[in-house]
């Protein structure tokens, strides 16, 4: 249920060494924390906490809409057009007037912020940031507006937004993000001769002077997935020791999309001393977003150094293999033969990298077998099989792909021998190890291998699961169920339904009205939906007719995703509609509020040749114009 995009945002260059004016500012916001002086990066001593504590929902799903929107392409602004020049002239006059009122007419910071917010509602941030931020900084090189930017940031995003709304496209949210990007310009403002850090002073009520480190403040914002994209950009633009320390400190605390942004920011500094930290911690706490992290790591870090080095710490070698596995899996999900204008799958982006990494991965697996190397070599086998099949058909002629495939091909016999022996053994050991919690890639590999020996340890794991902790835990349990379904052992059906009875309140969910839309972000039913849908899907694959009543019940669930899985499972468990209850269930589903559920039900009606459903089909086709064409087509096939 995670959302992915195949294009990664281009890196930001930290080499923007524009001259900035130093100064000394008094601001109205106070801080009781004085940053420690340091001459180097010490991440273990700089743990950054979020400005506002993040809820479980925010840690898991916050920022998805905005991050995917930021990766879309926008029309480039024509800076030479008369319309834009006039618009910027008007904006310059307004901002200059506001700045003058703040500095010389005793206008409050709050009033200044109130006047600036609507002026910043100028357009999409990805489209305007490279024009607007330098423009505003040219007006305020002295940093007089810094307290205003801080005030806008602390106002937060609107709280009454619909779940599918991008806060960065609202007036308040857009101004907040531009304010965070503006802070990236003020990296050399200092006090008392400390010009290497952006540090600002304020007076407490008792008259004492306190300071706030701007890099540390941006580091705290970098752990918030709603604004981490912008905070990390500002820290990279600072390009100071303090900003590096803030980003590395945020690496441990970042979750979800924030982890993606922090990792990309750390890579933008191009510091080899960060490589160990990024490999050790980069993929942590980013369930469903691993490809957004693994691909930049693969491109920037020579992973073969870790794989070939027998003295490297085992965790770093294992994580290097896991990064390669994720890149291979991501490449397997992309088209086989991109056009010459398109970017090839990430594993082929550098023709010389894949063969070197593949050789190092195999030798590392032989030297020290573990499940991380096994899943990586398994994905490499899948990728090589797909491409070699197409190459034999002469459908792939792209030299960016042909060259590395031919170079890796001689390794595959040895890879296959290793996977059929030590590879499968370490995967089975991992799935049976109660201390191992990173089970999703292991479960997927065993499911694709359809190894029947995995059935017993997976069932034992399911039997020890008494409750669902969160969405990430539910995804793990769902992956285990999917593996049982792929293996097809009927012993798995009963334990999976027993798991449902323990962890999901099925009766309560059936009493809730059927939703037309998917569950909103943060809904407490989401973990249950993940497991429920996975169990129903797996049981349909297993084909045990003894659990068909559970399949019927799933078609009445509150979540349309679960209902769809119930109907899909019904296609497999009762393909001819021999049970009258199955036909009744399908007819009821024709009135479902979710259009996709109705379409699935209509396909089952056609499969069953159920002419008794014709009156319902006619009525629904008349009432729901969005489904008229498809339902009329079903009617034509039945009559």
TrEMBL record:
One Pfam family recorded for the sequence: HEAT_PBS
UniProt xrefs under SUPFAM superfamilies: ARM repeat (SSF48371)
UniProt protein name: HEAT repeat domain-containing protein
Annotated stretches, region: Disordered: 1-60
């Amino acid at each position: 249920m995670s959302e992915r995009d195949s294009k990664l945002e281009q890196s930001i260059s930290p080499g923007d060494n524009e001259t900035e004016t130093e100064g000394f500012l008094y601001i109205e916001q106070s801080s009781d924390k004085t940053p420690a002086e340091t001459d180097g990066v010490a991440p273990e001593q700089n743990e950054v906490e979020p400005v506002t504590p993040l809820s479980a929902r925010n840690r898991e799903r916050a920022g998805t809409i905005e991050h995917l929107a930021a990766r879309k392409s926008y029309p480039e602004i024509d800076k030479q057009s008369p319309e834009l020049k006039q618009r910027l002239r008007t904006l310059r006059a307004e901002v200059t007037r506001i700045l003058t009122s703040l500095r010389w007419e005793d206008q409050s910071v709050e009033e200044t912020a109130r006047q600036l917010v609507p002026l910043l509602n100028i357009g999409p941030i990805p489209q305007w940031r490279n024009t607007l931020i330098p423009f505003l900084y040219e007006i305020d090189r002295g940093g007089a507006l810094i307290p205003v930017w801080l005030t806008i940031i602390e106002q937060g995003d609107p709280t009454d937004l619909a779940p599918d709304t991008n806060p960065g496209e609202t007036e308040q949210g857009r101004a907040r993000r531009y304010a965070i990007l503006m802070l990236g310009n003020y990296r050399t403002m200092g006090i008392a001769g400390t010009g290497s850090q952006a540090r600002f002073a304020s007076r407490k009520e008792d008259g004492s002077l306190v300071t706030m480190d701007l890099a540390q403040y941006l580091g705290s914002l970098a752990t918030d997935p709603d604004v981490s994209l912008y905070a990390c950009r500002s820290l990279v633009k600072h390009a100071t020791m303090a900003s590096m320390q803030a980003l590395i400190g945020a690496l441990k605390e970042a979750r979800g999309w924030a982890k993606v942004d922090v990792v990309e920011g750390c890579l933008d500094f191009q510091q080899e001393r960060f490589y160990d930290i990024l490999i050790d911690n980069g993929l942590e706490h980013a369930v469903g977003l691993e490809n957004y992290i693994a691909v930049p790591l693969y491109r920037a870090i020579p992973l073969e150094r870790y794989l070939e080095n027998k003295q490297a710490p085992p965790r770093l070698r294992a994580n290097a293999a896991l990064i390669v596995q994720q890149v291979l899996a991501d490449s397997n999900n992309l088209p086989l033969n991109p056009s010459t204008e398109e970017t090839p799958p990430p594993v082929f982006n550098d023709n010389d990298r894949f063969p070197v990494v593949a050789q190092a991965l195999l030798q590392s697996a032989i030297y020290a077998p573990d499940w991380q190397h096994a899943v990586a070599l398994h994905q490499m086998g899948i990728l090589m099989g797909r491409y070699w099949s197409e190459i034999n058909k002469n459908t792939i002629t792209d030299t960016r792909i042909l060259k590395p495939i031919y170079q890796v091909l001689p390794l595959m016999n040895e890879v296959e021998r290793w996977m059929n022996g030590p590879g499968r053994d370490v995967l089975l050991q991992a799935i049976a190890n109660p201390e191992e919690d990173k089970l999703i890639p292991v479960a997927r590999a065993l499911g694709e291998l359809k190894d029947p020996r995995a059935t017993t340890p997976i069932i034992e794991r399911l039997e020890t699961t008494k409750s669902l902790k969160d969405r990430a835990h539910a995804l793990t349990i769902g992956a285990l169920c999917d593996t049982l379904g792929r293996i097809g052992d009927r012993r798995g059906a009963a334990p999976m339904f027993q798991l449902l009875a323990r962890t999901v309140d099925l009766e309560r969910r059936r009493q809730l009205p059927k939703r037309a839309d998917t569950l909103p972000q943060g809904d407490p039913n989401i973990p249950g939906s993940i497991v429920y849908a996975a169990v129903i899907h797996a049981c349909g694959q297993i084909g045990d007719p003894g659990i068909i009543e559970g399949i019927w019940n799933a078609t009445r669930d509150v979540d349309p995703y679960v209902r769809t899985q119930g109907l899909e499972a019904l296609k497999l468990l009762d393909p001819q509609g021999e049970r009258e209850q199955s036909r009744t269930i399908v007819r009821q589903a024709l009135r479902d509020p979710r259009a996709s559920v109705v379409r699935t039900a209509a396909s089952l009606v056609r499969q069953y040749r159920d002419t008794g459903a014709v009156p319902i089909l006619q009525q629904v086709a008349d009432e729901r114009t969005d489904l008229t064409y498809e339902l009329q087509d079903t009617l034509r096939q039945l009559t």
